[in-house]
């Protein structure tokens, strides 16, 4: 759920945030069902063109990550269609403008842990891999079509050049790891094979 969201004064980003909040509210009102959401435009949450140094801060559970917006195609709030006989970390597929994108739950992916020490380690083991809500970051990749299931979008921002390191960026006086989408690609190729 979008909570305490901070967005810059970019009108396109504010519209995206408003649409996501509206869709999430309607989903909650329908007990998690995506039926009767025809009045919410779920397919128009594309990321507007931004400076290449703009990052999205998001969370998966209590762990924060950053991703460069050039790596994002769109933010999607939609229904997941389950698939049989796939690895546990694949929740299914979502439809993005008629194209299926594989939904990956990084919490179920082996060795994919955040370096953010704010994680709550007191959750039960079975709840550690489940994400509520239906918000997905659709990645802009030429080699594969997948998205990640996320818990929350915090903000879009442009860090100072000295705050950007190879694998992390400084945000609110702390370092946040940069999300490594190549690790997902490696897992998909290892478990499903290359095409």
Outline the structure in words.
The protein is an alpha+beta fold. It has one domain (11-192): OB fold (Dihydrolipoamide Acetyltransferase, E2P) (Beta Barrel), CATH 2.40.50. It is built from two helices and ten strands. It has helices spanning 11-29, 181-192; strands at 55-60, 63-68, 72-77, 90-96, 99-104, 135-139, 146-150, 152-157, 168-171, 174-177. A hairpin with a 2-residue loop joins strand 4 (90-96) and strand 5 (99-104). It is globular. Mean pLDDT is 77; it is low at 1-9, 35-44 and 114-124.
What are the key terms here?
195 residues; alpha+beta; OB fold (Dihydrolipoamide Acetyltransferase, E2P); five-stranded mixed β-sheet; three-stranded antiparallel β-sheet; 2 helices; disordered N terminus
Instruction: Give the strand content.
Output: 25-35%
Mean pLDDT: 77
Q: Runs with pLDDT <50, length 5+?
A: 1-9, 35-44, 114-124
Quote the distance from N terminus to C terminus.
Answer: 35 Å
Kindly state the number of beta strands. Answer: 10
- Count of runs of 4 or more consecutive helical residues: 2
Q: What global shape is seen?
A: globular
CATH class: Mainly Beta
**Helical content class:** 10-25%
Order of helices and strands: HEEEEEEEEEEH
CATH architecture verdict: Beta Barrel
Q: How many structurally independent domains?
A: 1
Spatially, the strands of the biggest sheet line up as 3-6-7-5-4
Output the structural class: alpha+beta
- Biggest beta sheet attributes: 5 strands, mixed
CATH superfamily: CheA-289, Domain 4
What name does CATH use for the topology? OB fold (Dihydrolipoamide Acetyltransferase, E2P)
Radius of gyration over all CA atoms, rounded: 16 Å
